[in-house]
Amino acid sequence: MRTEIMIDGIKNVHFIKKLKEHIETKHDKLAVKGMGESYTYRQLDLIAGAIGEELLKKGAEKGSLIAIIHERHVNVILAAIGCWKARMAYFYIDTNMPEYQKQQRLKDAKCEFVIDQPWIEAVKDKVLSGYVPGELPMGDLDDLAWILYTSGSSGKAKGVYLKHSSIAVHMNIANVFGVTENDRQSMMASFSFMSGLLEGFPILYKGGTLIMIPNEYRRDIKKLEEFCREEKVTVSFVPSHYAEKIVSEQYDIPDQRILFTGGEPVHYLKKMPFDIFCVYGSSECGGPVTCCKIDYESESYPIGKPIPMIKIYLLKENSMELVTSPEEIGEICISGMQVCDGYLNRTDLNEKKFFDNPFTDDVHYKKLYRTGDLGKWDQNGDIYYFGRSDLMCKIKSFRIEVGTVEAEMAKYPGIIRCVVKPFMDAKGEKELHGFYYSDAEINEDGLRDFLRNSLIHYMVPAHFHRLKEIQVTDNGKVDRNSIKLEGYTED
User: Fold this and answer.
1) Is the pLDDT of residue 283 over 60?
2) Which of 233, 266, 429, 441 reaches 20 to 30 Å from 84, CA-CA?
3) How many CA atoms lie within 13 A of 259 on its CB side?
4) CB within 8 A of 214, min separation 6: which ones?
């Protein structure tokens, strides 16, 4: 039974084994709080153990995949850990998800076991009435832990296949950033996204306290500020546009020690009384793979350097050849134990995205994942993000990397968020359009001149459009599909 693994001198421990250690030393400490409920480490362990026990009684067994259908709630944490204690894996379906998507995922996962809110509540009531479940056998790092469904850029849901070895390495993110057992970490994310793992589990791995943010506060930044202040939150993760507001408006969260941000590029942050880390990650790796500590003001920032136990390579287009020039853009490729074993039931896609790593013989870095994201090294070993390779377009036979244009446009003073897309007019002429959101009017001639100083002429958008807002998805990424242009068709 393998419950620990050493990588580059760092010990990584199975989540359930680490949790057992906390039960022995912190049994009365608050583990999880949210939605009017709170549970100590002892209560969390008992409820999760009972959930695992009841799943076995339902006929599930080691390796079974359990669908947790529930609204965003502390129950999901309890149920997920219950699955892990019984050596089962889970995937999450939000009750607010359209019915056809629910059925799609249940069919894709060939799921035979489903648990929901009434089922979980019944198990909780049993434990809180005095029932003590038996001890379940310890799991193995090679066990499947989680299927994360991600639509990615294609829009078609893909089930990312993550083992406990990946989860264990990801849990060490807490050590990398200095999170301790004394911290109180807020959770803003949905369990549907990678950030749900980043926010929900590493703090428990460290023996700290998880505070779930009420659903009604997640889209109101002033209420969020008030909540974090009242709950004495010390660690939090927010989307990039929230981080920019927190810094620019000097929000008062006196206990804040660490602020994580990511999802989209950030701009005009600065040194604050707390540490700010901009992280870049991938669902296929279960969490962050690079980070940049932000303690200076700038119009843009790199996504940083690889975190421990991760190797990053920049490869030339459609090849396994490394980028050698600091000025050359390449595809960001990730290697390490965090990399998943592939997509569920997607052999065709696995062959295109996952490879044996030809650049090292180290068994801990044998897998290589091609992200489809573009990046460039700088002289300090930091990586700058340049958008998606699948967002390239051709206009008048010129090949344009849309991400590069967006990165330059975002540097212009006053622009808060921007998107660049090609559109075709009624005559069939295709042109590049730049959309931006700003608090004040932008001098578009000045913007055009600014872009001409850094971009080749054919990369400068022919038209600019100021928008009242640029929508973002629940995980903080710009919703490109929401941007339409009347009288034009998308390329």
Assistant:
1) yes
2) 233
3) 28
4) 34, 35, 227
280, 265 contact by CB (below 8 A): no
Q: Between helices 74-85 and 117-128, what is the axis angle to 10°?
A: 80
Amino acid at position 16, single letter: I
Average pLDDT along the chain:
90
pLDDT higher than threshold 70 for residue 404? yes
Q: Which amino acid would we find at residue 100?
A: Y
Domains of the chain by range and CATH?
Answer: 4-288 (3.40.50.12780), 310-386 (2.30.38.10), 396-490 (3.30.300.30)
Q: Residue 468: exposed, middle, or buried by beta-carbon count in 10 A (0-12, 13-18, 19+)?
A: exposed
Distance of CA 271 to the CA centre of its chain: 24
Cα angle, residue 168 at apex, residues 163 and 170 outer, rounded to 5°: 100
pTM recorded for the entire structure: 0.85
Q: What distance in Å separates the CA atoms of residue 76 and residue 55, rounded to the nearest whole number?
A: 15
Name the one residue in this structure whose structure tokens are 């009365």. 28
**Cα separation of the two ends of the chain:** 53
Q: Count CA atoms closer than 13 A to 102's CA, side-chain side.
A: 13
Q: Would you say 95 and 70 are in contact if contact means Cβ atoms under 8 Å apart?
A: yes
Candidates 178, 224, 170; CA nearest to 201 is: 170
Cβ proximity of 76 and 99 under 8 Å:
no
**pLDDT tens by residue, 420-454:** 999 988 777 889 999 999 988 899 999 999 999 98
d(CA 268, CA 248): 8
